Amino acid sequence: MENDHDMTPPPSTRRDSDVRMRGFASRALVAEALAWVDAQAQPLEREIALLDAACGRVLAAELVAGIDVPGFDRAAMDGYALRAAETTGAGEYNPLAFRLVGESLPGRPFDRDVDPGEAVRIMTGAPLPNGTDAVVPAEYASERSSTVDHHSSSITPRLSTFNPRPSSSVEITAPVSPGKHVGRRGEDIAAGARLLAAGRRLRPQDIGLAASVGLDRLEVVRPPRVRLLATGNELAVPGGPRGPHEIYDSNTSMLAALVERDGGGVVERLRVEDSRDAVRAALLAAGADVVLVSGGSSVGAEDHAPSLVAELGKLAIHGVAMRPSSPTGMGRLGEALVFLLPGNPVSCLCAYDFFAGRAIRRMGGRSADWPYPRIEAEVGRKIVSAIGRVDYCRVALREGKVEPLAVAGASILSSTTRADGFVIVPEEREGHAPGSRVTVLLYDAGL
Predict the structure, then answer these.
(1) Dist CA 143 CA 64 (whole Å)
(2) Taking a C-beta distance cutoff of 8 angstroms, is the pair 358, 381 a contact?
(3) CA distance 329 to 20
(4) CA separation (Å) from 332 to 11, 36, 161, 312, 329?
(5) Read out DSSP for 244-278?
(6) Strand, coil or helix: what is 194?
(7) Which pTM value belongs to this model?
(8) Backbone angles phi, psi at 143, to 5 degrees
(9) Minimal CA–CA distance to 361: which of 283, 433, 290?
(10) Cα–chain center distance at 48
(11) pLDDT tens for each residue of 203-241
């Protein structure tokens, strides 16, 4: 059972792994715990992900374009492709006529060079025919069924894969400059251009960009595999029956959602009784990069996880100078990082976000920083803390001002649903007075 005392002894690097029924002799500073996390949680190896499954993943290698996009000059509007120099002087009262010799459609280009005095009907995205350098928009052109020669030419027009209509000429009423309404080869992406930097969390538009240069898979950071282990004889499974002295396990579901938010993958959920052998077996199970133990992390007689981690691997930190979540522990079992999270739900959430979530984000190649947006706001009612510990204070925003929720219990999970966010009070402060400005981390946009 969690016991978040307000009085925090001075930090010390000496740890006794079995503190059951004796209490913590000392607690690590939050900064010390964060430094351990950052030293231990390094990005995992690379893997290949199919493009359709890569959104949200972290790019492991810089993405460089192998082709131009587009790979050809193309029309940017529906209209008529021709030589821009031949449109000089065109106007409403001086229409210029061109022989209409064919059309160019997306994926179906006009198949010969265009000679002087000729024009090609063209659709947006279609290849610009050889011999042309501009497009006159359709609204400045009119097709004519009679044969009209440009500059009084009497040459019979040559038709190439064209005769959709009886028209054989087009009159234009506006001049265009070279390159007008033409999308040039490589104007979107040039071959050899650096498209995306390594470490970028891929968004839908990034996936589209990769597809546009012909890629169907990307090199990404492997997401960490996470095992969830909830301990407690009192836990009942949501959706199932509950005894008179049992509680439904809320931490496992909450942690699974948090892990998904932070880019990890839950490989297993285990609920085990408060038995040393059962906890030992669950801790030793293979296949996880991170093990999150919910409950059994404090100083109660049935809190077996800390001493087992020390026995089976390394318990680096047990007890942190913060409120809530002071019984938090962390260490290693072989190659896996282990985080001992308090059983009280708010403490579990707090410890996860401070330490375990940070590790999962780093291991998956993401930013270690809080996944919550921040705002600056004025304190409306005093936020109380104590020097020597970090305080995670749930707050509400009322008329634009920050007020702490009138609840202190680490087991009151509903307080986090009523809160707009939280304020972190550093260990060197006794709190925040009314009128001061603080940083609020907002819950709602954390997903």
Answers:
(1) 45
(2) no
(3) 14
(4) 21, 11, 72, 9, 11
(5) TT-EE--HHHHHHHHHHHTT-EEEEEEEE-S-HHH
(6) strand
(7) 0.80
(8) -85, 145
(9) 290
(10) 18
(11) 999 999 999 999 999 999 999 999 999 988 888 888 888
